[in-house]
Amino acid sequence: MTTANSNSVCDGWQFWIDRGGTFTDVIGRAPSGELATAKLPSSSPAYEDAAVEGMRRLLNAPAGAPFPAARVAAIKMGTTVATNALLERKGARTLLIVTEGFADALVIGDQARPHLFALEINKPAPLYAGVVEAAERLGADGQVARPLDEAALARALEGAARDGFTSAAVAFLHSDLNPAHEIAAGRLARAAGLGFVALSHEVSPLPRFLPRAETTVADAYLTPVLRAHVERLVAALDGAPLWFMTSAGGLVRAEAFRGRDAVLSGPAGGVVGVARTAIEAGRPAALGFDMGGTSTDVCRYAGSLERREQAQVAGVKLRTPMLDVETVAAGGGSILGFDGLRARAGPGSAGADPGPAA
Questions:
Q1: What is the C-alpha separation between 234 and 240, in angstroms, rounded?
Q2: DSSP per-residue string spanning 137-160
Q3: Which residues, in sequence order, are CB contacts of 131 under 8 Å at separation 6+?
Q4: N-term to C-term CA, the chain
Q5: What does the pLDDT look like over 141-186, one tens digit per residue?
């Protein structure tokens, strides 16, 4: 634990936290303006949550006492929980509810070939574990061409709930123009017992069915895992105000944090930090290099935060605003392997727990 002085004064403690797969870093600013830092392993039998433990240490909270929420003005956190769930494929058991005839649309994809001359294409398995086709259809103008058969869909969803599905992604053709069928399907899914339902017109309300459906599946797959983590954290913090960094570099309250926004939550904080450092140093441009225990993140700043609207992370395509970060699975703890004559770093990491450990 180290401390430093600052001339600024604030009401209550403020915390900035980066929770990685290997280590969690905590920076706290006391009401006097004094800065303090702590670094803890993200997973340890000595405590339940590294972020909470780091804050408790900086606050000198007695062991076993409730978290002193009244002394805290704000907690702002970047986390790799959603990223690791995606890398390890440990999300919720997700059901895709799609317009009849389009059950295989996401597997077929757009048929893009990232490696033009590759003779063998290894595509990652889809995030969803099952598909229900809904008898419905909207025209390209958003008008109903075929009404939704609610009775048939309700029976299918009840069967899916009995089969152990806990989350659902609803993606119908042209629902960005008319969400009525998706809203009805979401209501039926919740009534059938599916705990979380993502509707594509809410998750990615833009034209083009394929990216809208892919993003909705990712949101349905990741959000339940993320919510479970956030709810545990909120309970441990006893009401202290909590914000999370999104992939776009902004902050949202804990209750609004969703899987679609969280894939680059941790690295996005680094990009914002690089930009601020370059500005304060009077430099027109800067490259950011962040080697963690599991992965290495690289970014560029040249007067503005570079953004992208679509990305592919761990083989999953997402259409959601995010900062432009290049991530490779080669961190300080990455396990070096050999593939024939070539050395390969990662994605297995010797010290990441949770994380893509070998």
A1: 8
A2: EE-TTS-EEE---HHHHHHHHHHH
A3: 95, 96, 97, 98, 103
A4: 31
A5: 999 999 999 999 999 999 999 999 999 999 999 999 999 999 999 9
Residue in the block written with tokens 């907690």:
75
Q: What angle do CA 134, 136, 139 make, to 5 degrees?
A: 140
Whether 22 contacts 292, CB under 8 Å: yes
- Helix (H/G/I), strand (E/B), else coil: 251: strand
The pair phi, psi for residue 269, each rounded to 5°, is: -65, -35
pTM: 0.85
pLDDT tens digits, residue range 52-111?
999 999 999 998 899 999 999 999 999 888 887 887 788 999 999 999 999 999 999 887
Using CA atoms, how far apart are residues 24 and 126, in angstroms rounded to an integer? 31
Q: Which residue has the higher pLDDT, 115 or 179?
A: 179
State the amino acid at position 140 in one-letter form.
A
| Beta-bridge mates of residue 300 | 287
Six token digits for residue 66: 């409730």
Per-residue pLDDT tens digits for 302-353: 999 888 888 887 778 899 989 998 877 666 666 777 777 777 666 566 665 5
Confidence of residue 115 (pLDDT cuts 50, 70, 90): confident
DSSP state letter for 305: B
Q: State the DSSP string of 192-239.
A: HT-SEEEEHHHH--SS-HHHHHHHHHHHHHHHHHHHHHHHHHHHHHTT
The pLDDT of residue 338 = 76
Whether the ω angle into residue 354 lies within 30 degrees of 0, i.e. cis, is yes
User: Is residue 105 within a helix (H) or strand (E), and if so which, with residue range?
Assistant: helix 105-108
In three-state form (DSSP H/G/I as H, E/B as E, the rest C), the secondary structure along 157-201 is HHHHHHCCCCEEEEECCCCCCCCHHHHHHHHHHHHHCCCEEEEHH
The contacts of residue 187 (CB under 8 Å, 6+ apart) are none
Q: Per the structure block, which two tokens stand in for 255?
A: 């209750």
39 pairs with which residues across the strands?
A: 25
